[in-house]
Amino acid sequence: MKRIVIVGATSGLGLELARQCIRKGWSVGAAGRRAEALTALQAEAPGQVAIQPLDVTHDDAPQRLDALIERLGGMDVYFHAAGIGSRNTELRPDIELATLRTNGEGFVRLVTSAFGYFRAHGGGRIAAISSIAGTRGLGPAPAYSATKRMQSTYLDALSQLARTQRLGIRFTDIRPGFVDTPMLHGDYPMRMRPEKVARAILQALESGRRRIVIDDRYAALVFLWRLIPAALWERIRLQPKA
């Protein structure tokens, strides 16, 4: 039985992945900001789920993570699903800075804590949901696309660090496209159901994939995005319908 800790398990892909892991017989440590949502998840499988309220932007988040790991009896996989994102063509500073705090500062705070745990316990896997938005700078969501690029690069750096120090820590960078979750607002194309995406994530974890773009349509889109010259990219209108 594998033990997975999911930070950001109260909604969206984090919640759906928790349910998929429960069905597979995994032990799940669920963390997130909303205590009532965590309690509801635990009620679905009381013997398999441990819970811990936690906010990645707070200084006490690593201590709360440690408490959850102890309650779970250890951790084999750390999964980071906590994140926010908004269209912000008006460049409101509060939106941009909140995105940086959650997707940047909060991500580093918890991923480094998980790295420290695995370094002390002989290895494990760190996985995180970044995004295809990190492929290029997206005008409608500057802080979101920038922080998702940062997350992928950070995982690359930690992977190199773990390999060179022979720590036995492995990484999975999950890059979905547009998923039909509460975070997504507007008429985006090629929306994917969270159940389908969570199944693909679990398969990637079980097979030990280093990185994955979900799904094939988005893999093709990312390939094309990378081929577009910068001068042309700046002229592409990416704004979805409201």
Q: Could you please describe the fold and organization of this structure?
A:
The protein has one domain (3-233): Rossmann fold (3-Layer(aba) Sandwich). The mean pLDDT is 90. Strands 3-2-1-4-5-6-7 form a seven-stranded parallel beta sheet, with helices on both faces. It has helices at residues 12-23, 35-44, 61-72, 93-120, 142-164, 194-207, 216-227, 230-233, and strands spanning 3-7, 27-32, 49-53, 77-80, 124-129, 169-176, 211-214. It is globular, with a radius of gyration of 17 Å. It is an alpha/beta fold. Strand 6, helix 6 (194-207) and strand 7 form a beta-alpha-beta unit. It has eight helices and seven strands. Helix 1 (12-23) packs across helix 6, helix 3 crosses helix 4 (93-120) and helix 4 (93-120) packs parallel to helix 5 (142-164). 48% of the residues lie in helices and 16% in strands.
The span between the termini is 44 Å
- SSE class: alpha/beta
Kindly provide the name of the CATH class.
Alpha Beta
By CATH, the architecture is named: 3-Layer(aba) Sandwich
Number of helices: 8
The share of residues in helices is 40-55%
